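Pasting as-is:
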Amino acid sequence: MKDQNMQKIEATSPEAQSANLVANNVAQLRALFPDLVTEGPNGPAVNLDVLKALVGDATVTDAEEKYGLNWHGKRTARQLALTPSMGTLRPCPGESVNWDTTKNLVIEGDNLEVLKMLQKSYAGKVKLIYIDPPYNTGKDFVYPDSFQDGVRNYLEITGQTDSGRKISSNTEASGRFHTDWLNMMYPRIRLSRSLLTSDGAIFVSCDDGEAANIRRILDEVFGEECFVAQFVWKARQFTDARATTNVSTDHEYIIAYAKSPEFSLRGIERDETKFANPDNDPRGPWMSRSLLGLATKEQRPNLHYVIEEPGTGRKFPPDPSTGWRYSPERMSELIRTGCILFPRKDDGRPREKKFRADMKDEFVAFRSIVDGIYTAHGTEEIRRCFGADVFTFPKPTELLQRIVQQVTREGDICLDFFAGSGSTAVATMQQGIGDGQSRRFILVQLPEPLLLENINQRAAAEYCDQLQKPRNIAELTKERLRRESARMSQELLAAPIDLGFRVYRLAPSNIKAWMPDSRNLEQTLLAQEEHILKDRTADDVLSELLLKLGLDLCVNIDSQTLVGRTVHAIGGGILLTCLDRQIDAAEVEPLAQAIATWHKKLAPAGDTTCVFRDSAFVDDVAKTNMAAILEQNGIANVRSL
């Protein structure tokens, strides 16, 4: 039997970490310019002299005086985005809806850490990102202004560790009013770009406080040429009399950037109900539209003339400020062909008869000013759902549904990593019901604590008590989606729209890190005998494998009992796992043969990775035999945890 070692996945192994973005960047540079990457004291390094030779000295600069947005901590924030995650996501089927069939995700955790973990599985797969980050109002916010391990920060914020951590206060008096907010946003925006498809886009809600700064960040990350629009949303319906400047600030912004400069919104579909054929015109359905132009007589004198109705001699002078839409020659032709509708009354104006067949474009441009949908509508939706104001200033579903409709189609993924009230998910499902196209959503929400003593959070905290759930925002996000899913399922008649979601929760890796105790090395070695944390299940480990090996968390999983052991086939056999706690020596060969037979039947499209629990084998001989048999049957990549 050929000797084949089974490689062990350690906490520091690439398979146990999120995507190494720095290594990926270096690899791409090496592929483009092999002479640019050399060997440095700590591994591959970029040769700055070669870079200068490739692009010219004038285009390489580290000078302080250069165009762009700079602030204290930017370099650290950039580095933070490139640091791999050491965490995992634990499945929570009991908190989910339609766990076995849904492809939607709701993830509790620090969104920076979660974005890192999603890199392998979802890079280049998200069509739309919409975020409504916390506005920089000078009040408290829970995203830290210090740079530390994301999982530890998450555990501290949510009270799972006793660190005495308090929510940070971001005030003008701190001297870091904009800096703290920028340090929070920058790495998250950088990480989000790699998740977008080549024709994807990001939409960011903000107000006047940071609109200029977020534009600069997006310019840097996406490129100015990928700017789509800065939509002005009239968020308030009535004047705010409290404004100290005597200006009622009625608007907010939604700033859109695309992955590619060729990106385009779908546009607004023409209202087909306006087309009819009451006179049975052989040219088909038509609608009437104004003949008024856009220029004064001084600007376009040729468009200011009198129209005469054939047969009656009635005359219709032009409007002094607009004139007519067409020249006299074009107007005469339209009158001759019966395309001008004359009014019954003398004080009316002629209109054009526009045929649907002549209107090639099915859509008209999406306007940059959004009106008719207000914050109050979002508040009303929350009240209908909960009977209480458990979210402050929630985005109305219709507003986000318009964005979803403009950017996405069947099967596309919508991501919101500042999920809040969950309006993005509701809008995604609602749009699916509207057009029969089922989309996917991924929400990320920090389980931010809700305090009874905080008057602005009291209603939400009390509602969590009614639900007998922990007092945090994520619990309310999930509850809203459960209720909205139940409501929409009653409306769903035909199209198979996915109204479920899987819940995952951020946690430290299932794999124990090597942390020797110099005072008791013997006990440390004994503790490392089991490589997986004691409280973790096979499903926990399987979820981490999916993330770390770059597979969709909702990928199809087939399970079989082979030789009395549970074996999972993921992604049609791309990943095979047996995470049982014990595999007897006598079971090794028949189990390996059974796995090999199933693998041959599955015939996966790519190379297969097979993973076992390391402590399940009685000794290294058993592990070696398992790996050797599998290798002889075409499964060379065998790992243990």
